[in-house]
Write a structure and sequence with these properties.
The protein is α+β, with helices and mostly antiparallel strands. The chain contains four helices and four strands, in the order E-E-H-H-E-E-H-H. The protein has helices spanning 35-66, 70-79, 132-140, 145-155; strands at residues 8-10, 17-19, 115-119, 126-131. Bound molecules: zinc ion (2 copies).
């Protein structure tokens, strides 16, 4: 039995069978939900962002991404002297990482976090704040001190 490409597809969000063309994003990417559903979700979240404001978005991002409050984050930042716990670069020296797409109305997006919250993957507890580069680097070394030490020894050969 040969399968012809379905002309319609079931959207898990609205539960409707809709034209397959509605499941293709603007960039040509295949979508799980239909485009009208995604557009609605997007405009709701945009309205939500407008209501809670930049400080609210920052708090929500911290909670969602790192599971901590703004107060906890700021306490860590000041305890680390606003520097990456590994390379010691100051926040002001770090490149701004963008959060999300630029807004259509030209207003700035919420302030990006230059120091990211590093979690211990085993215990889930917060280890400290790192710049994006150092955070990625220890991830590449699988958070393994022995491998990092071996890398340091290799570099000093
Ligand atoms: Zn839908
Ligand atoms: Zn760093």
């Amino acid at each position: 039995m040969t399968e012809s490409p379905a002309a319609t597809q079931l959207c898990p969000r609205c539960g409707k069978q809709r034209a397959a063309a509605l499941f293709i994003g603007r960039s040509g990417k295949r979508l799980k939900s239909c485009r009208p559903c995604l557009d609605t979700a997007q405009s709701i979240s945009r309205r939500h962002r407008d209501r809670i404001g930049a400080a609210g978005v920052r708090a929500a991002n911290l909670r969602d991404k790192y599971g901590i409050t703004v107060e906890e984050y700021d306490r860590l930042r000041s305890a680390q002297d606003y520097r990456c716990a590994i390379c010691r670069r100051h926040e002001d020296e770090l490149p701004a990482s963008s959060v999300g797409r630029p807004r259509l109305d030209g207003r700035p997006t919420a302030t990006a976090f230059k120091l990211v919250v590093d979690h211990c993957h085993r215990s889930g507890s917060v280890r400290g704040l790192l710049c994006v580069g150092c955070n990625a680097a220890i991830g590449h070394f699988r958070d393994d001190p022995a491998v990092l030490l071996a890398a340091a020894a290799y570099l000093s050969r």
